[in-house]
Protein backbone atom coordinates (compact mmCIF):
# COMPACT_ATOMS: atom_id res chain seq x y z
CA UNK A 1 0.00 0.00 0.00
CA UNK A 2 1.66 3.22 -1.09
CA UNK A 3 -1.07 5.38 0.41
CA UNK A 4 -3.07 4.67 3.50
CA UNK A 5 -6.78 5.31 3.00
CA UNK A 6 -7.99 8.71 4.16
CA UNK A 7 -9.90 8.49 7.44
CA UNK A 8 -13.15 10.46 7.19
CA UNK A 9 -14.74 10.97 10.60
CA UNK A 10 -18.47 11.62 10.27
CA UNK A 11 -19.97 13.49 13.21
CA UNK A 12 -23.63 14.16 13.88
CA UNK A 13 -23.37 17.94 13.93
CA UNK A 14 -25.19 20.32 16.28
CA UNK A 15 -26.31 23.92 16.64
CA UNK A 16 -24.27 23.91 19.87
CA UNK A 17 -20.79 25.27 19.08
CA UNK A 18 -19.28 23.02 21.77
CA UNK A 19 -20.08 19.99 19.57
CA UNK A 20 -17.84 20.92 16.62
CA UNK A 21 -15.12 22.20 18.99
CA UNK A 22 -15.07 18.81 20.76
CA UNK A 23 -15.04 16.87 17.48
CA UNK A 24 -12.09 19.00 16.31
CA UNK A 25 -10.24 18.31 19.59
CA UNK A 26 -10.80 14.57 19.09
CA UNK A 27 -9.49 14.83 15.51
CA UNK A 28 -6.32 16.49 16.84
CA UNK A 29 -5.88 13.62 19.33
CA UNK A 30 -6.35 11.00 16.56
CA UNK A 31 -3.78 12.79 14.37
CA UNK A 32 -1.33 12.93 17.27
CA UNK A 33 -1.70 9.19 17.91
CA UNK A 34 -1.53 8.21 14.23
CA UNK A 35 0.47 10.90 12.39
CA UNK A 36 0.80 8.77 9.21
CA UNK A 37 -2.94 8.84 8.47
CA UNK A 38 -4.75 11.75 6.85
CA UNK A 39 -7.85 12.58 8.92
CA UNK A 40 -10.76 14.63 7.58
CA UNK A 41 -14.05 15.54 9.26
CA UNK A 42 -17.59 15.90 7.94
CA UNK A 43 -20.95 16.53 9.61
CA UNK A 44 -24.37 15.02 8.87
CA UNK A 45 -26.24 18.17 9.86
CA UNK A 46 -25.93 21.76 11.19
CA UNK A 47 -22.17 22.09 10.62
CA UNK A 48 -19.94 22.23 7.57
CA UNK A 49 -18.30 20.60 5.74
CA UNK A 50 -20.95 18.12 4.63
CA UNK A 51 -20.16 14.48 3.85
CA UNK A 52 -20.87 15.03 0.15
CA UNK A 53 -18.68 18.14 0.05
CA UNK A 54 -15.68 16.40 1.60
CA UNK A 55 -16.02 13.33 -0.64
CA UNK A 56 -16.20 15.50 -3.76
CA UNK A 57 -13.09 17.47 -2.80
CA UNK A 58 -11.15 14.28 -1.96
CA UNK A 59 -12.08 12.80 -5.35
CA UNK A 60 -11.05 16.05 -7.09
CA UNK A 61 -7.62 15.74 -5.40
CA UNK A 62 -7.21 12.24 -6.79
CA UNK A 63 -7.76 10.38 -3.52
CA UNK A 64 -8.93 6.81 -4.22
CA UNK A 65 -9.47 5.13 -0.85
CA UNK A 66 -11.55 6.36 2.06
CA UNK A 67 -12.55 4.78 5.36
CA UNK A 68 -15.72 6.52 6.60
CA UNK A 69 -16.05 6.19 10.35
CA UNK A 70 -19.25 7.26 12.15
CA UNK A 71 -18.45 9.19 15.34
CA UNK A 72 -21.32 7.45 17.09
CA UNK A 73 -21.44 5.33 20.22
CA UNK A 74 -24.29 3.02 19.13
CA UNK A 75 -25.49 1.53 15.87
CA UNK A 76 -28.77 3.44 15.81
CA UNK A 77 -30.55 5.17 12.94
CA UNK A 78 -27.66 7.33 11.71
CA UNK A 79 -25.21 4.45 11.30
CA UNK A 80 -27.79 2.23 9.62
CA UNK A 81 -29.49 4.78 7.39
CA UNK A 82 -28.26 8.40 7.18
CA UNK A 83 -24.55 7.71 6.80
CA UNK A 84 -24.82 4.97 4.14
CA UNK A 85 -27.21 7.27 2.22
CA UNK A 86 -24.71 10.15 2.38
CA UNK A 87 -21.85 7.87 1.27
CA UNK A 88 -23.84 6.68 -1.74
CA UNK A 89 -23.62 10.23 -3.14
CA UNK A 90 -19.83 9.87 -3.45
CA UNK A 91 -18.05 10.23 -6.79
CA UNK A 92 -17.55 6.84 -8.46
CA UNK A 93 -13.76 7.17 -8.43
CA UNK A 94 -13.71 6.74 -4.63
CA UNK A 95 -13.58 3.37 -2.94
CA UNK A 96 -15.30 3.82 0.43
CA UNK A 97 -15.45 1.45 3.36
CA UNK A 98 -17.77 2.26 6.26
CA UNK A 99 -16.10 1.39 9.55
CA UNK A 100 -18.02 0.22 12.62
CA UNK A 101 -19.36 2.77 15.11
CA UNK A 102 -17.17 3.39 18.17
CA UNK A 103 -19.17 1.50 20.78
CA UNK A 104 -19.22 -0.77 22.53
CA UNK A 105 -15.52 -1.02 23.40
CA UNK A 106 -13.55 -1.68 26.60
CA UNK A 107 -11.54 1.44 25.69
CA UNK A 108 -14.67 3.57 25.99
CA UNK A 109 -15.36 2.13 29.44
CA UNK A 110 -11.78 3.15 30.35
CA UNK A 111 -12.59 6.65 29.07
CA UNK A 112 -15.74 6.73 31.25
CA UNK A 113 -13.62 5.79 34.28
CA UNK A 114 -11.00 8.42 33.38
CA UNK A 115 -13.73 11.10 33.39
CA UNK A 116 -15.09 9.89 36.76
CA UNK A 117 -11.61 10.02 38.30
CA UNK A 118 -11.03 13.50 36.84
CA UNK A 119 -14.33 14.53 38.51
CA UNK A 120 -12.93 13.53 41.92
CA UNK A 121 -13.48 9.81 42.44
CA UNK A 122 -10.62 7.37 43.07
CA UNK A 123 -10.45 3.61 42.37
CA UNK A 124 -10.82 3.08 46.15
CA UNK A 125 -14.31 4.67 45.95
CA UNK A 126 -15.62 2.00 43.57
CA UNK A 127 -17.21 -0.45 46.03
CA UNK A 128 -19.26 2.30 47.71
CA UNK A 129 -20.19 4.27 44.56
CA UNK A 130 -23.21 3.70 42.33
CA UNK A 131 -22.84 4.89 38.74
CA UNK A 132 -25.55 6.16 36.41
CA UNK A 133 -24.50 5.34 32.83
CA UNK A 134 -26.39 8.17 31.11
CA UNK A 135 -26.76 7.96 27.35
CA UNK A 136 -28.82 9.68 24.68
CA UNK A 137 -31.56 7.08 24.42
CA UNK A 138 -32.93 5.73 21.17
CA UNK A 139 -36.08 4.31 19.64
CA UNK A 140 -33.84 1.47 18.40
CA UNK A 141 -34.09 -1.50 20.84
CA UNK A 142 -30.67 -2.78 19.73
CA UNK A 143 -29.03 0.49 20.83
CA UNK A 144 -30.82 0.36 24.22
CA UNK A 145 -29.81 -3.28 24.78
CA UNK A 146 -26.15 -2.40 24.13
CA UNK A 147 -26.22 0.30 26.84
CA UNK A 148 -27.75 -2.18 29.32
CA UNK A 149 -24.98 -4.69 28.47
CA UNK A 150 -22.26 -2.08 29.04
CA UNK A 151 -23.75 -1.20 32.45
CA UNK A 152 -23.91 -4.88 33.45
CA UNK A 153 -20.32 -5.62 32.42
CA UNK A 154 -18.96 -2.41 33.96
CA UNK A 155 -20.60 -3.26 37.29
CA UNK A 156 -18.39 -6.37 37.48
CA UNK A 157 -15.27 -4.19 37.67
CA UNK A 158 -16.12 -3.38 41.30
CA UNK A 159 -18.68 -0.58 41.47
CA UNK A 160 -21.50 -0.70 44.07
CA UNK A 161 -23.93 -0.71 41.10
CA UNK A 162 -24.12 0.57 37.52
CA UNK A 163 -27.50 1.37 35.99
CA UNK A 164 -28.40 2.85 32.59
CA UNK A 165 -30.41 6.05 32.17
CA UNK A 166 -31.51 7.86 29.02
CA UNK A 167 -31.89 11.53 28.13
CA UNK A 168 -34.59 10.97 25.49
CA UNK A 169 -36.74 8.36 23.72
CA UNK A 170 -36.40 5.77 26.51
CA UNK A 171 -36.74 5.49 30.29
CA UNK A 172 -35.54 5.70 33.05
CA UNK A 173 -34.24 9.28 33.35
CA UNK A 174 -31.01 10.21 35.13
CA UNK A 175 -32.76 11.66 38.22
CA UNK A 176 -34.80 8.46 38.69
CA UNK A 177 -31.69 6.28 38.62
CA UNK A 178 -29.84 8.61 41.02
CA UNK A 179 -32.69 8.05 43.50
CA UNK A 180 -32.72 4.30 42.84
CA UNK A 181 -28.98 3.98 43.56
CA UNK A 182 -29.39 5.94 46.82
CA UNK A 183 -32.16 3.50 47.74
CA UNK A 184 -29.85 0.55 47.05
CA UNK A 185 -27.54 1.86 49.76
CA UNK A 186 -24.63 3.09 47.61
CA UNK A 187 -22.84 5.67 49.77
CA UNK A 188 -22.08 7.88 46.78
CA UNK A 189 -23.77 8.33 43.40
CA UNK A 190 -21.88 9.38 40.27
CA UNK A 191 -23.26 10.21 36.83
CA UNK A 192 -21.14 9.16 33.84
CA UNK A 193 -22.39 10.73 30.59
CA UNK A 194 -21.90 8.31 27.68
CA UNK A 195 -21.69 11.07 25.07
CA UNK A 196 -18.92 12.12 22.71
CA UNK A 197 -19.63 15.84 22.85
CA UNK A 198 -21.55 18.45 24.85
CA UNK A 199 -25.03 19.47 23.67
CA UNK A 200 -28.72 19.55 24.55
CA UNK A 201 -29.00 15.94 25.75
CA UNK A 202 -25.83 15.96 27.91
CA UNK A 203 -27.13 19.23 29.41
CA UNK A 204 -30.38 17.40 30.25
CA UNK A 205 -28.31 14.65 31.92
CA UNK A 206 -26.45 17.31 33.94
CA UNK A 207 -29.78 18.71 35.17
CA UNK A 208 -30.88 15.21 36.17
CA UNK A 209 -27.59 14.75 38.01
CA UNK A 210 -28.41 17.55 40.47
CA UNK A 211 -28.98 15.00 43.25
CA UNK A 212 -25.76 13.06 42.55
CA UNK A 213 -22.41 13.55 44.30
CA UNK A 214 -20.30 13.48 41.15
CA UNK A 215 -20.95 14.45 37.53
CA UNK A 216 -18.26 13.39 35.06
CA UNK A 217 -17.51 15.18 31.80
CA UNK A 218 -18.43 13.82 28.36
CA UNK A 219 -15.95 11.46 26.67
CA UNK A 220 -14.74 14.12 24.23
CA UNK A 221 -11.12 13.90 23.12
CA UNK A 222 -10.08 11.33 25.76
CA UNK A 223 -7.05 9.37 24.48
CA UNK A 224 -9.04 6.13 24.77
CA UNK A 225 -11.66 7.51 22.38
CA UNK A 226 -8.96 8.34 19.84
CA UNK A 227 -7.53 4.83 20.27
CA UNK A 228 -10.99 3.38 19.58
CA UNK A 229 -11.18 5.46 16.38
CA UNK A 230 -7.79 4.10 15.28
CA UNK A 231 -8.81 0.50 16.08
CA UNK A 232 -11.99 0.84 13.99
CA UNK A 233 -10.01 2.43 11.14
CA UNK A 234 -7.35 -0.30 11.20
CA UNK A 235 -9.99 -3.04 11.25
CA UNK A 236 -11.75 -1.47 8.23
CA UNK A 237 -8.48 -1.15 6.30
CA UNK A 238 -7.58 -4.79 6.96
CA UNK A 239 -11.04 -6.19 6.24
CA UNK A 240 -12.20 -7.20 2.79
CA UNK A 241 -13.26 -3.99 1.08
CA UNK A 242 -17.00 -3.79 0.52
CA UNK A 243 -18.09 -0.95 -1.70
CA UNK A 244 -20.82 1.17 -0.15
CA UNK A 245 -24.12 0.81 -1.92
CA UNK A 246 -22.89 -2.19 -3.90
Short description:
By secondary structure, this protein is α/β, with parallel strands linked by helices.
Task: Kindly list the characteristics that best describe this protein.
246 residues; 42% helix; Rossmann fold; alpha/beta; 4-stranded parallel beta sheet; 2 domains; 8 helices
Query: Which CATH architecture of the largest domain?
Result: 3-Layer(aba) Sandwich
N-to-C SSE string, H for helix and E for strand: EHEHEHEHEHEHEHEH
Total beta-strand segments = 8
Number of domains: 2
Briefly note the CATH topology name of the largest domain: Rossmann fold
> Ends: how far apart?
23 Å
Work out the strand percent: 15-25%
Q: Overall mean pLDDT score?
A: 94
Radius of gyration: 19 Å
Structural class: alpha/beta
The DSSP helix count reads 8
Largest sheet: 4 strands, parallel
What is the overall shape? elongated
**CATH class designation of the largest domain:** Alpha Beta
Ranges where pLDDT stays below 50 over 5 or more residues in a row are: none
Q: How do the strands of the widest beta sheet line up side by side?
A: 2-1-3-4
Helical residue percent?
40-55%
